[in-house]
Amino acid sequence: SNLAAPVLAGTWSTPSPVYDVAICDSFAIVANWGALQVVNIAHPPVLPLVATLSAPFLYDVQVRNHTALFGDDDSLLVVDLHNIPSLPVIGKVHTRYVVYDVAIAGEYAYVANLNKGLHVVDVSDPTNPQMVGQHCSYSASDVVVRGNYAYTVDHGLNRVRVYDITQPETPVPV
Questions:
Q1: CA atoms of 79 and 66, how far apart (whole Å)
Q2: What is the rounded distance in angstroms from the CA atom of residue 40 to the CA atom of residue 53?
Q3: How far is CA 141 from CA 76, 110, 135, 152, 163, in A?
Q4: Residues 159/167, Cβ–Cβ less than 8 Å
Q5: CA 20 to 30 Å from 81, out of 13, 30, 70, 159?
Q6: CA–CA distance, 21 with 3 (Å, rounded to integer)
Q7: What are the CA-CA distances from residue 64 to residues 14, 84, 148 (Å)?
């Protein structure tokens, strides 16, 4: 392949807006408005839909250790991806407002929570995710983690906020 001239290998279409995609083995895990969908990407251009899980307010999806983590309205959900097409929800924690984005670092999921800021969830046991920290003074629509810092975007105020997450239970604005 030539990175300077990529070639389209296949497409998959859905009637709903697509917000994010993550990869797990030979599957694309797609966050679209209304559902988490799994597409087999092993043999492009044929890209069949192989599984769907209803999720009315889905904006983002992250994959870690054959589990998908995503927000559905006011909760962070964990779905087991070991036996696709089965998509059992194996864990859930309420975040009190719309989950817009999720970043995973180590044993923690960092959640951008619209109008409620940054939330930190311990996902070391995917069947029992636990809210362990938060900083709720600002809105957050996107989150990225690098090293000991979490960066959130506050789209309402057009700002990037930086948090020291050396102690994930107590994120501190920098």
A1: 9
A2: 15
A3: 14, 12, 14, 7, 15
A4: no
A5: 13
A6: 21
A7: 25, 15, 19
d(CA 76, CA 35): 14
Query: CA–CA separation, 166 vs 144, rounded Å?
Result: 15
Quickly tell me which residue has 């999921």 as its tokens: 109
Could you tell me which of 29, 26, 19, 61 has the C-alpha nearest to residue 43? 26
pLDDT tens profile 59-90: 899 999 999 999 888 899 999 999 999 999 99
* First-last CA distance in the chain: 43
Pull the structure tokens for residue 174: 């920098």
95: confidence class by pLDDT, cuts 50, 70, 90: confident
pLDDT digits (tens, 9 = 90+) for 127-167: 999 999 999 877 889 999 999 999 999 877 788 999 999 99
Q: Where are the alpha helices (DSSP H) in 93-139?
A: none
Q: CB of 67 within 8 A of CB of 78? A: yes
In this prediction the pTM is 0.92
In sequence order, the β-bridge partners of residue 153 are 142, 160
Of 128, 119, 127, the C-alpha closest to 169 is 119
